[in-house]
Design goal:
Number of helices of chain A: 10
Largest interface: A-B, 62 and 64 residues
Number of domains of chain A: 1
Strand content of chain B: under 5%
Helix content of chain B: over 70%
Number of domains of chain B: 1
Distance between the termini of chain A: 55 Å
CATH superfamily of chain B: MetI-like
CATH topology of chain A: MetI-like fold
Strand content of chain A: under 5%
Order of helices and strands of chain B: HHHHHHHHHHHH
Structural class of chain B: mainly alpha
Shape of chain B: extended
CATH superfamily of chain A: MetI-like
Low-confidence stretches of chain B: none
Mean pLDDT of chain B: 85
Oligomer: heterodimer
Shape of chain A: extended
Structural class of chain A: mainly alpha
Chain lengths: 260, 266
């Protein structure tokens, strides 16, 4: 009878890999001072504070946070719009199948990568230093961040299009603009719209906290209340903004599902 | 010759609907612009831009090579440590949530509830989570780890449950028909099959958490964010510049490494 059970491959490599990963995880937990017992003890002590925030939150405060919340939504709308408008032509230039010279898309991608690496909060605090406190700095930060995000997603989509349509147009003697208009755009527009809506979702979440560095929106109200230790108001702000963000997320996810 | 051109069919209802959509979208954008007050660029803007540029040209190299606890290397390492620990915590907690949200494990009704819970976790901004944890466990890296650990569940559990839902059910059924109990099925059939994807998603989330960990410090939850915000607030641009440069380089390197590993895995 043939041997049915195949001998297992050597485990040394696998085990050394597991050891390495375990070492990295434990090492980083130690380095960051993460002590589970201490955390649990503090958690029980700090539980009282949570009680003051959420049981019960101060619902009478809601009328006063509607305006900052609206400002947050406006910031996200404008930031997404500006970022998305600039992102479309940039994505076309950064894709390697439309303009085929390396000299354009390699540096462009590098810049896009750098933009995506800097978190929106850091951008916002830089712009607050330049443009001053207020929603405008937040909008500029969101626009730049969205620009990096949407450009990257869109140029990847452009590179994955069905190239047959481009070739069909080329064989008819169409110029670059015609190819862009009739072969590339129709294929990527649904995705591009979907990415823009996704960017809006991300921006709403980002805009809700940008106020922490003074860039407008509900975050500013939150910081103010935390500084004055008005924890019941803090609870209200958190619950209220969470509800708004959740509703926007669910709506936009439904729209995106229908688009693509 | 036949008419080759085929006229697009136009549906009046659809056209009106599209017009309404466009009006709504542009109305929203106009409303948005109306709310953003443009106070003009500050008079000091030009000089602070120049100072910022000077900072990027002459970054604070002394700070970058300062290997004590106040130096840049320590802060970067702490940021990476927060990202690794936070990702690990969330990957572990995500598995039960993912099982709860997969319809081929717990059935249609329960999975809908599970999915809703996961969506709710995903929506909660991580900085606010960090603020809550700071007020509960005190400022420092543990608050950041907890915030990342909880927030990442939202995305990881969703991705995990998607890969569990698309897995081959034959192995699971084979084990069940041999009389395997729930945990045997879980550890011998479900997890081994999806584990490459699970690890790949976890690495991807680690890349995202690296970026997130660098902002957590802005609110006091450890990492590079705190020295960065101090440098920006005190307008010491050379220091802010070196922090941003090192941050970009670190994140890019980690992205590259983890991207390579992910390509090999799946």
């Amino acid at each position: 009878m043939q041997k049915l059970i195949v001998p297992k491959p050597k485990r040394l490599r696998k085990y050394s890999l597991i050891m390495l990963v375990a070492f990295m995880i434990l090492g980083s937990a130690w380095f960051a001072g993460f002590n589970i017992i201490e955390v649990l003890v503090n958690l029980f002590k700090g539980g009282r504070l949570l009680g003051r925030m959420f049981f019960p939150p101060n619902f009478a405060y809601i009328p006063r946070i509607i305006d900052p919340m609206l400002e947050t939504i406006q910031m996200a709308l404008v930031g997404t719009f500006l970022g998305a408008i600039v992102a479309l032509p940039t994505a076309v230039l950064a894709a390697n199948n439309f303009i085929k010279t390396k000299w354009l898309h390699v540096p462009l991608r590098l810049i896009l990568n750098v933009f995506r690496t800097i978190p929106a909060m850091v951008l916002a605090s830089l712009f607050v230093a330049i443009f001053g406190l207020g929603a405008f700095s937040g909008v500029v930060a969101l626009a730049i961040f969205t620009f990096g995000l949407i450009s990257k997603l869109t140029f990847e989509t452009i590179e994955a299009i069905d190239y047959g349509q481009v070739e069909a147009l080329m064989s008819l003697g169409a110029n670059k603009m015609n190819i862009l208009r009739y072969a590339i755009m129709p294929q990527i527009l649904p995705q591009y719209t979907s990415y823009t809506i996704y960017g809006f979702e991300v921006n709403i979440r980002a805009a809700a906290v940008l106020g922490w560095v003074g860039a407008g929106g509900i975050g500013q109200t939150l910081e103010y209340n935390l500084a004055w230790r008005q924890f019941d108001n803090v609870g209200t702000i958190i619950i209220f903004s969470f509800a708004i963000v959740l509703v926007i997320d669910l709506v936009s996810a439904a729209i995106r599902k229908r688009l693509v | 010759m036949d008419n080759i051109l085929i006229k697009k069919e136009k549906n009046p209802l659809k056209t009106t609907l599209h017009t309404v959509y466009y009006i709504i979208v542009f109305g929203l954008i106009f409303w948005g612009f109306s709310g953003i007050e443009y106070k003009g660029i500050m008079q000091t803007a030009a000089s602070s831009m120049r100072a910022l540029w000077q900072g990027f040209v002459h970054p604070d190299l002394v700070y970058a090579t300062n290997s004590t606890i106040d130096g840049l290397p320590y802060a970067i390492l702490e940021t990476i440590a927060i990202a690794i620990s936070g990702t690990f915590v969330s990957a572990i907690i995500s598995i039960p949530f993912a099982l709860l949200a997969s319809q081929n494990i717990v059935g249609q009704k329960v999975s809908k509830i599970g999915k809703l819970i996961v969506t709710m976790i995903r929506t909660f901004p991580e900085l606010i989570l960090a603020l809550i944890f700071i007020s509960v466990v005190g400022p420092g890296a543990p608050a950041g780890i907890l915030a990342l650990g909880i927030h990442s569940i939202g995305m990881l559990a969703k991705l995990f449950s998607e890969s569990i839902e698309s897995m081959d059910l034959g192995v699971k059924e084979a084990l069940e028909s041999c009389g395997g109990n729930y945990f045997e099925v879980l550890f011998r059939a479900v997890l081994p099959q999806v584990s490459p994807e699970l690890i790949s998603y976890t690495l991807y989330r680690f890349e995202i958490n690296m970026r997130a960990a660098s902002t957590l410090g802005l609110v006091g939850a450890g990492g590079i964010g705190a020295p960065l915000i101090f440098a920006i607030r005190s307008r010491s641009w050379p220091r802010a510049a070196i922090i941003i440069i090192v941050l970009i380089i670190t994140v890019t390197i980690i992205d590259q490494i983890s991207g390579r590993i992910r390509k090999k895995l799946v």
